[in-house]
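User: I'm putting together a teaching handout on how multi-component assemblies are represented. Below are the sequence lines for each component of a complex, exactly as they appear in our records. Could you produce the 3D structure of the whole assembly as structure tokens, so the students can see both representations side by side? Please keep the chain order the same as the input.
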Amino acid sequence: DIQMTQSPSSLSASVGDRVTITCRTSQIISSYLNWYQQKPGKAPKLLIFAASALQSGVPSRFTGSGSGTEFTLTISSLQPEDFATYYCQESFSNPGSFGQGTKLQIK
Amino acid sequence: EVQLVESGGGLVQPGGSLRLSCAASGFTFSDHWMSWVRQAPGKGLEWVANINQDESEKYSVDSVKGRFTISRDNAENSLYLQMDSLRAEDTAVYFCARDRDWNSYPYLDYWGQGTLVTVSS
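Assistant: Of course. Below is the structure of the complete assembly, with chains in the same order as your input.
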């Protein structure tokens, strides 16, 4: 099984900040990595697929990068609606695994 | 507009069974793999199972193998999850999600709002 290590587990930041979340995998997965955003009581929302492809309708301040075993999600300038929990997910295996999540809170 | 609506959740005793349903609309259901993902209260996401377009391929996480069965009815645009021998640790919100892929890179692009399953005596 592929192990996912997402960091940090929580993060406090202010509107306008640039933040980066990291996801590491226990084996090489090429670009089989997706990122989701989830707000309390809601379904997850796809942000990034194939490590760096921006899902339609997602603001360009969200950027995904990486390949192999290390990946990052960057939000270039935090907006109030971005405070949520973020999950990475590998799709190299079937079914794939999710990271444990990063809770992004307002400082 | 793509819509996925789950139903069938509820309270069940340990060892009991439930059948979840997901009604799909707004897209050609028979063209897509489909998935079930769950989230225990206050916890992260766990991809439970998925199924291909004609039910010839099914995959599930080890913790539910032999107890949960994923299936679909393309004529009814519906996805199902038969859950048997339920345990307390199966308590979660269960989401139905549509699979897509781009250049063979899979992802889940639409999700339902979820249905809560509580396993307790």
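A couple of points students might notice: The first strand of chain B starts at residue 3 and ends at 7. The interface with chain A takes residues 35, 37, 44-50, 59-62, 95, 102-103, 105-109, 111-114 of chain B (CB under 8 Å).
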